Amino acid sequence: MSIGHSHHLENPNATTPPPKVQLILSVPAPPVPDNAEAMTIQVTLPPGCEGSPPHRRTGPAFGYVIKGEMIFELEGEPQRVVKTG
Hints:
16% strand, mainly beta
């Protein structure tokens, strides 16, 4: 995707201008193994929960905190607090 990329949604019955999506930043995708899959999951952690034991994913993982905050740690990096949003 180039930095000049912009996109609008066509709706011939619209009475107002269409929404416009403008690319702000694009970076190359990381290498992804052939067996990687995309998933959407919801994890609910009770207050004080120790979370999951150390584990690995087959590809990139993205997360979003809906409510509260959690301590997040990746191997080789310091712990950090991830808050709502």
